[in-house]
Design a protein that fits this description.
Shape: globular
Bound molecules: zinc ion
Order of helices and strands: HEHHHHHHHHHHHE
Strand content: under 5%
Number of domains: 1
Number of helices: 12
């Protein structure tokens, strides 16, 4: 296989693994406590996130919890209704970093997220993790594969995570009365995250698909990991924060 093609395939695979770790560990397990992850699997997720994105979990959790606390009202770190769709879609990382660097935000919203010796020695150092991953691919498959794979992964990860925040608060289906929207096409690309209206309606539920013709690949992964006793789900039913179904798609106060 030519190096460029190998790099594209590898980049897509890395993106999928990083997306799985992001939605299952950072989002559903840490930020919302919708499930518990066993210690060995948590260690794997932490290393995957470190080497694929350099994200510090307590920062990600703080920014995300603040988004739920101030959804689409002043205080939301990345609302397209406040700063515009293009600003979120194309500068999601900048908006994230501005909020993540606010020590008060992290202290307030992530006080329950552990910060242990592994963070201090390794996981807090983003360039080290990403550098080790790139060096390993370079050593095993060559610099061309490494460059293409890194490029494909970074573009997909940044663009699609931004789309969850931008598209997910701009248009789509809205079965529940909140300001987020469901997009199944985005859910296929983001391990279920595109079902964002459902998620805002029931943030403590690990399952994002609520209705027929909705599919959450992340939930399928959770079921498989649950059978292997690697995760335990807080509750398998859907527990809505707001029980009344939405009559129209007009915006309403955040959930
Ligand atoms: Zn949201
Ligand atoms: Zn959430």
């Amino acid at each position: 296989m030519p190096p460029v093609l190998t790099g594209i395939v590898l980049g897509v695979c890395i993106f999928q693994v990083a997306g799985l770790a992001t939605t299952l560990y950072l989002h559903r397990a840490l930020a919302h406590r919708a499930m518990k992850v066993s210690a060995p699997l948590a260690a794997v997720f932490r290393v995957v996130i470190w080497m694929s994105s350099g994200i510090r979990p307590r920062q990600w959790v703080a920014v995300h919890r603040k988004h739920h606390a101030f959804t689409d009202i002043p205080g939301d770190p990345h609302s397209p209704k406040l700063v515009g769709f293009l600003a979120v879609q194309f500068n999601n990382v900048g908006l994230y970093r501005r909020a993540a660097r606010d020590a008060d935000v992290v202290a307030r919203y992530s006080r329950d997220i552990r910060h242990d010796i592994w963070d201090r020695l390794f996981l807090d150092h983003a360039l080290l993790g990403v550098g080790i991953a790139m060096a390993a691919v370079w050593a095993g498959l060559g610099w061309e594969v490494m460059l293409v794979a890194a490029g494909v992964h970074v573009v997909l990860y940044m663009f699609l995570n931004a789309a969850v925040n931008a598209v997910g608060h701009a248009w789509g289906k809205a079965p529940y009365p909140n300001t987020a929207f469901n997009n199944q096409w985005l859910a296929w690309l983001t391990v279920g995250e595109g079902l964002h209206n459902n998620h805002h309606a029931a943030p403590s539920s690990a399952r994002f698909a609520h209705h027929r013709a909705e599919f959450d690949p992340g939930w399928w992964a959770i079921l498989a990991l649950s059978r292997l006793k690697l995760v335990s789900v807080r509750h398998r039913d859907i527990r809505l924060r707001q029980a009344r179904p939405r009559a129209s798609t007009a915006a309403s106060p955040a959930s």
